Amino acid sequence: MLLALLLCLAVLVSPAVAQSVDPLIRRYNQLINSQAPDYAAALALAQQIEAIQRARLGTRHPNYSDSLKMVAFVYNEMARYAEAEQWYDRMLANREEVYGAGHIRVAETLTDISGVYLAQARYGDAERVLQRALAICRAVAGDNHPIIGGLLASIGNVRRSQGRYSEAEALFKQGMAARSQEAKADPRNYTVGLIQLSGVYTDQGRYEEAEALMKRILVNEEKLYGARSSQIATTFTGLGVLYERQGRLDEAEAAQRRAIAIYQQIKGGDPAGMGQTLNNLGNVLTARGRLTEAEEAQRKALAIREQLYGADNFGAAVAVGDLAWALHKQNRYAEAEPLYRRALAIHEKTFGPHHPDVIQILDRLGELKAAAGNSAEALALSRRATAAALAHAATEAADTRNEKAAGEVAKHGAYFRHHVAHLAAAATKNIEPAAALGREALELAQRASQTAAAAAVQKMGLRFAAGDGALAALVRQHQDLGAQWSDQDKALAAALSTEVSKQNVAMVERLRGEVAVTERKLAELKARIEKEFPDYAALSSPKPLTPQELQKLLGADEALVFWLAGDKDMTQSFVFAATREGFAWQPIPLAGDALAAKVAAFRRGLDVDELRKSVEAGKPVLFDLALAQELYATLLGPVDGLIKGKKQLLVVPTGALTALPVHLLLTARSEAPAPTAENLVAYRDAAWLMKRQAVTVLPSVASLAALRNFARKDQGTKLLVGFGDPVFGAETADLAQRSAKKIASRRLNTRSFSEFWQGAGVDRDKLAQALPRLADTADELNAVAQKLGAPASDVFLRADANETTVKRVALADYRVVYFATHGLVAGDVKGLAEPSLALTIPKQATETDDGLLTASEIAQLKLNADWVVLSACNTISGDKPGAEALSGLARAFFYAGARALLVSHWAVDSAAATRLTTSTFDILKSDPKLGRAEALRRAMLAYLNDGSEPINAYPAYWAPFSIVGEGATR
Length: 970
Fold this sequence. Notes:
Elements lengths: L1 H6 L1 H4 L2 H19 L5 H19 L6 H14 L3 H19 L4 H16 L3 H19 L4 H16 L3 H14 L1 H6 L2 H16 L3 H19 L4 H17 L2 H17 L5 H17 L3 H19 L4 H16 L3 H19 L4 H16 L3 H25 L3 H7 L3 H16 L5 H15 L3 H14 L4 H27 L5 H31 L1 H7 L6 H7 L4 E7 L8 E6 L4 E6 L3 H12 L4 H9 L8 H11 L4 H4 L4 E5 L28 H5 L3 H4 L1 E4 L5 H8 L7 E9 L30 E2 L2 E2 L1 H7 L5 H13 L6 E4 L4 H6 L5 E7 L2 E2 L11 E3 L13 E3 H4 L8 E4 L17 H9 L3 E5 L5 H17 L5 H13 L10 H4 L2 E5 L5
Parallel strand pairs: 1-4, 4-5, 5-16, 6-9, 6-10, 10-14, 14-15
Antiparallel strand pairs: 1-2, 2-3, 7-8, 11-12, 12-13, 15-16
């Protein structure tokens, strides 16, 4: 498009002017469109053309802005973004003056400017100008013009850069749909859309889908461009990166070498593409440990890039940094350091001190200094990286309209983890006072482990902190409007991507108007809250807790343990512990894949469905007591002296440790013979941690402040509302009455499902067939209601256990909200867009009731619940195993207003679930001062010590549940 615009320039100007500038324009086009662009010469020509046009036409002539664009374009290609922005701003002002603010050429300029902003990671600015361009184009050209598709995709690129992958994916698909007609005439743009979509699939770890798209792209490009084109080579390069992300290093190397071979066959060679591919090849070879070859590839890449861009240009700096990394991995620190510093200087000059690329170089340089034994300098560099990361996050939080984006931008967890490691090394060497290092480490560890669950708890606390006054109403209204805006935005996106009809056009206009109204209300509310309640602003952006602040929140009988799991490139994790009397932190010699493997091994034998299969196969896989004691020594041993005397243990796991049921750690080695399927006595006598302490899980350290300082103190007036035994489709026989005394013959009614999701949508017929009836959940709910004294009318079963009922009932009136049904979490079901609770599936789905209560719908419920019980499978696991401390379901309930959740670690035996929950409520009813965690602990102990059946001693049955949130009596 740019080339066509520039070639048309000679036709647009007057003959006299054309005679002067036409040869210059042709030469300019040759310079920038050659296989080896000469940007320095092109810049000189562009500036000469601009001067001629300004002198002969004046600055108000329509064609003058095109010469401004020529200069701005070259500066942008040279990564001289400050200068590019200045020239684009001049161009924007010119076109607004000449054409008017709503002209299509103004939208074109805004799109150009967004690219400059995006390159500098100024995401809020980039989206702001793109949204303006989109509004102009819709007003001028309508929703069906091809340019709309390109703008939607550009906004998708911004959101992808922010880590908002699901939103980016939707926008890319909408962009492709908008350009579908154009694709028939020119399929190249559609192929670009496929490339963007494959990239966001890769970002989400959806590698099979990404690979399938990449191979489809190769077929399309071969038809369009031939087998020896730069487009084909670029796609092989991308395929190689995809394979590298998956750890398929043989295939990654082969794809990069295939791309290099194609570049070598192209006339002119495409040096820019060759340089990038050599960079990628070098990175693959570094990952494979073939460091000499990696260095050779990186030096070749650097030579090409220096020739193309110059030695001090950003284009060369990328290769400089990659070469430094190859030398770094060879422990050639003296050679790598000046290269890092050269790359750092170029990046800072190009992007400023807070750009993500600057942060990465500072981090790597800090790692180099640490490896070289210079802990003090490593820590100093890490502090610079952290300061830059926080500054960048703060800028985006202020600029970005969608509040969710700010949380994504703020996630620089790897750098913060490295910072904590440098602090630990400094503490070992006594470089700085231990107390100050510990305080800094706790703060950074909290920043590294921020999760959506933690944010949900904080939002709950803020809402309840406001009480019943004016602020309470405003806060809730603002949060509800935010959720409404998100739903409207999604609906608008969906409407824009469907086939155009009169009805659809009307819907688009209606939705667009609703979005505008909601945005205006949000802005007005925000301004009002900040003016009338200034303290709220500070509270709504909580800072990490200091050791002293944390200690003040703890009760006399409480200890808190917080683990920061090390990344895959680290050899350490860290444990922090606090009581009222003290604070400690220590490194743990286990991290990354090794830590994940330990946790996976620990969980073997706990999922009752997998347990049954192993027993039926004659190779029972039982829970490993020795590993449980080993992990206790590793994870809690370093702080055991501080925490062991407290009755209540609050744990904050991160990374792989979120999948660890902490209450099943062993505080001492078991002396009994190893258990077998026929002899389970050793499990009953083992020194389980839960025998010593009641365990509560927290989604973050800071969430403790939200739960305790700001959570509402009043309670619902009614006891319990429950939903269970929904109607799905074909129902299996009631298994609740089937039992046996031996594990080998016990038939289990488990809750774990897959294979009914197709992409992001659900096959409702297949879902209905796949979900077995949970008849015994009716008994479970009725028993719990009876224990609490709740009326039978507050228990909704079978057809009444539906979405419509859930949304109709005044849930805020109830202290306990109980769901006894299948939990469908994203970690279990490939392609599941949102974790959900399965309720009665209606014969005809509607917008408000399709049988699945999704996390986004849960977040819009209004609760005032002491706790929510999720008697469903695996609801404590994250969207990916070990990803977060809570599933999307749990974090949604926190947002809605739950103080605590009772959730499960693995697929639960329904009979065991009924026994544990009813026992827990019975114990709590008889002594409300015990607290939820202690009541659950006693229920588990009673189950464990029941010798009527040997299977009762097995932890898969008595230990599936954990309390998440507030477990103590307050």
